[in-house]
Amino acid sequence: MKHGSYVVMAAIGLAAAGCGSSPNSGTTTSTSTTISKTVTASVSQATTTTGANTDLRPLIPVPPNTARTDGPDSIGENGIRLHFLVNGAPMDVMGAYKTALQQKNWSLIVDSSSGGSGGGGATYTATNGNAFGMFNGGGWGGTTDIDACAWPSKPSDTSCGHRR
């Protein structure tokens, strides 16, 4: 038992010596302990309304003979809006656009067309999976404007917005 007591006393002596001054008068010895902690933070993803929803852009076809494209612009409820200025008679352009929508897997809910004497247009309401779209076009003579809007799901306000 005496041997075990000496070992314990030696360990206590070494620990005490480590905490005090060293025998050399110009130096000191100290013991430092590093404590590390792990912090976990939860961050939620925010939806921004400043940028257009790029996931919806591939769902909106560009009409043939497009002279100018404006957008995509952000609209309410995480939707996007594009405007196309198209060279072509409104009824022809909108008929071709209806086909282009169906080729992009849009299912038409409402197909409203009107026209005559060189003018006219159409409005298509459609779904593509959960996505919801409003496509409105019209014009006169050889020029057609199309406003195309899409949302990730049916919005409470389906107005497509207007060009700025």
Arithmetic mean pLDDT? 76
Shape category: globular
Secondary-structure element sequence?
A: HEEHEEEE
- The count of DSSP E runs of length 2 or more, i.e. the number of strands, is 6
Query: Count of helices?
Result: 2
Biggest β-sheet: strands ordered side by side in the sheet? 1-2-6-5-4-3
- Major sheet summary line: 6 strands, antiparallel
Q: Helicity range of the residues?
A: 10-25%
Query: First CA to last CA: what distance?
Result: 94 Å
Helix-strand category? alpha+beta
- Spans of at least 5 consecutive residues whose pLDDT stays below 50 are 3-25, 27-50
Percent range for β-strand residues? 35-45%
Return Rg in Å: 36 Å
Protein name: Lipoprotein
Organism: Mycobacterium numidiamassiliense
Keywords: Signal
Explain this structure to me?
The chain has 164 residues and is of the alpha+beta class. The protein has a domain at 57-151. The chain is 20% helix and 35% strand. The chain is built from 2 helices and 6 strands; from the N terminus they run αββαββββ. It has a 6-stranded antiparallel beta sheet with strand order 1-2-6-5-4-3, covered by helices on one side. The radius of gyration is 36 Å and the shape is globular. Residues 47-74 are annotated as: Disordered. Residues 1-17 form the signal peptide. Keywords: Signal.
